[in-house]
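Tip: read the tokens left to right.
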């Protein structure tokens, strides 16, 4: 029974992988709105019903298809962050800039991802929220390092600072995506203006 269950799990996992690969390919090629699920299923080599057996709706499928890309983008940015003795502002703007650059690669698809992920439910809704909390925790850790360096006041609440940074980052992301073109450098510069104001409270405690 265990062997049968394991084989079924492996088959299911492979089917999910094929569906996600086909979804990503099709969304990048045709855009989210114009990508029919029937064609996605054909590319994945499965029935259309199988797609929805693994992913309950198109919004969930979009979030799942791009989740790994976002994780890898953050991972590469963290691996190449400026050193700890660099200004905290520069480290955080580097991280935000990497994400803005990712969203700028396909603004239309990014708009769909941000919109559909906002109130996503189910398993992938939880994953999206966990990813946001993970990002905030990452920022809070960078702020803690800055406190240890004496850059920010010791009484600064790093967790609260992480939330404040994410709010500013997300606001600028929405502003950039709402325009006809997405300029990641300009969006990053706009974020820097906010961060310089935000830092005043961190320095003074």
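Filled-in amino acids:
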């Amino acid at each position: 029974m265990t062997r049968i269950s394991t084989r079924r799990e492996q088959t299911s996992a492979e089917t999910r992988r094929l569906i996600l690969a086909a979804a990503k390919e099709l969304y990048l090629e045709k855009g989210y709105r114009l990508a029919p699920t029937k064609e996605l299923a054909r590319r994945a080599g499965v029935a259309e019903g199988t797609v929805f057996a693994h992913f309950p709706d198109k919004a969930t499928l979009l979030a799942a298809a791009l989740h790994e890309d976002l994780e890898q983008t953050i991972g590469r940015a963290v691996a190449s962050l400026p050193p700890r003795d660099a200004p905290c502002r520069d480290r955080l703007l580097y991280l935000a800039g990497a994400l803005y650059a990712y969203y700028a690669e396909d603004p239309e698809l990014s708009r769909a991802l941000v919109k559909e992920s906002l109130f996503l439910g189910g398993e992938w809704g939880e994953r999206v929220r966990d990813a946001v909390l993970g990002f905030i925790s990452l920022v809070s850790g960078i702020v803690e390092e800055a406190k240890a360096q004496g850059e920010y006041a010791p009484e600064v609440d790093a967790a609260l600072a992480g939330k404040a940074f994410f709010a500013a980052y997300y606001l600028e992301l929405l502003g950039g995506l709402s325009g006809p073109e997405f300029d990641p450098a300009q969006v990053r510069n706009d974020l820097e203006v906010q961060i310089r104001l935000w830092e005043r409270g961190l320095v003074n405690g």
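The first helix runs from residue 2 to 30. The mean pLDDT is 91.
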